[in-house]
Amino acid sequence: MADVTVIGLGFVGLTTAAFFANRGANVHGIDNNIERNELLTQMKIPFFEPKLGEYVKKAFLTKRLTVGDDIQDGTKLSRYLFICVGTPMTLEGKVDLTSITKVSKDIGRALKTIDNYKIVCVKSTVPPKTTENLIAAKIEQESSKERYKDFGITFIPEFLSEGSAINDIAKPHKNVIGANDPKSLLSIDNLMRRIYRRQITTIKTNIISAELIKYANNAFLATKISYINTIANICNTLPGADVDVIARALGLDPRIGNQFLVAGPGYGGSCLPKDLSGFILSCRETGYEPILLKAVEEVNADQLDVIINIVKERLGTLSGKTISILGTAFKKNTDDIRESASIHLIRKLKNLANIRIHDPKALENTRKIFGDSIKYSHTIRDLVTDSHCLIIMTDWDEYRGITETKLLEYNKNRPLLIVDTRRLLKIKKSNRIDYVGLGKSE
Ligand code: UDX
Questions:
Q1: CA-closest residue to ligand 1 atom 19
Q2: How far, in Å, from the CA of 318 to the mean position of ligand 1?
């Protein structure tokens, strides 16, 4: 008998399952990807995420985690059913609810033959009203049971960041529990107390507010980034201006806060772009045009043109030139390239110039997109050798160690253009290196 069944063993589901198991819960994980499940039972994880592998290993060794692919079994096994399946963005920017609809129906079918009270906890990010109007509705339809009377339903948003998932889940800045009935609320609150064994700031609210909290949280982070990118672009036009100094000063004002003020190539990843787009569309469905959010999205998309214009201004024609890109992951400490600014940049540049790329973790994922149409380097030396321009896109710590001496040794083109969108390098502009730090104009 398990305590918790986690449906969907992607980044959020696997982190939740492994963490809960390490905190003493008996967890059954379900995924319809059999290969992924087999890999997990060999105690290997299917993507790069610091610390997660150790947690998964320990969870299996202590026999607190099992995996399978049958939602019927999983529904019977546990009181708590966590839904963590993906809700990706469609080509039109909508939220794809196919998987979550299927899972809801499967849970409903399983509940038909079960008399125990189960609590469904939705963790997948969904547009407002989805938990009640789609998930609970499908479960009721398939099970012929009634929400709140025969089963509970809650929305519990997650705020995990890739690259720091285990730290984030172990020390959450908040827990949010969205429930429309006292029984579900109390039950989830009890589970969280058991898992955390200490006081966590918990916001207890209704489902619609909890759904909105997730969108509002991510939209605010995206807003901060587009705001500081706007300031960086203003700095580009004013010699002497330095976006990092400005950000440091802004961050000292507690009303602003010092995080998410690092200017760069624009936000990417599997959440911020998708959630902003989903939020905008769901606002429109209710008849409200969210002009601020739309502007945040536009600033983000335009950031790529800011970078390309810097390169074009300095290199002139791009035809026949080699542009080397440092980093394709959407940020450091991950091999995830979903909605990465770097990937979008490569798409824009690859028909104009020869592209060569480097990334410590995401090379293979990048190859799956671009195949032989670009070149791949395993070392900085190989990346740099014949290059006319380097563009630093990902904030990998190891790029900070790249020195002027090394670059001049590896590359004979003078001046060598470097566009450092994250301002990682300690290099001054000279007649040998044309260094441009985004938002740091000289
Ligand atoms: C985000 C949210 O932070 C997390 O709470 C939510 O659960 C999922 O979405 P994640 O997608 O892992 O997490 O990435 P995050 O650390 O938020 O970074 C998103 C993007 O913004 C990255 O491309 C990053 O490089 C960029 N970024 C972040 C900046 O450009 N500047 C900053 O100051 C911070």
A1: 267
A2: 31
Told to judge if 271 belongs to the known catalytic residues of this protein, a careful annotator would answer: yes
Among residues 84, 121, 235, 271, the one annotated as catalytic is: 271
- Confirm whether pTM is higher than 0.85: yes
Cross-strand partners of 4 = 27, 80
Q: Quick: pLDDT tens for 407-437.
A: 999 999 889 999 999 999 999 889 999 999 9
Which protein residues touch ligand 1 with a CB less than 6 Å away?
158-162, 218, 221, 225, 260-262, 264, 267-272, 330-331
Atom of ligand 1 nearest to the CA of 160: 7
Report the percentage of the chain scoring pLDDT > 90. Answer: 96
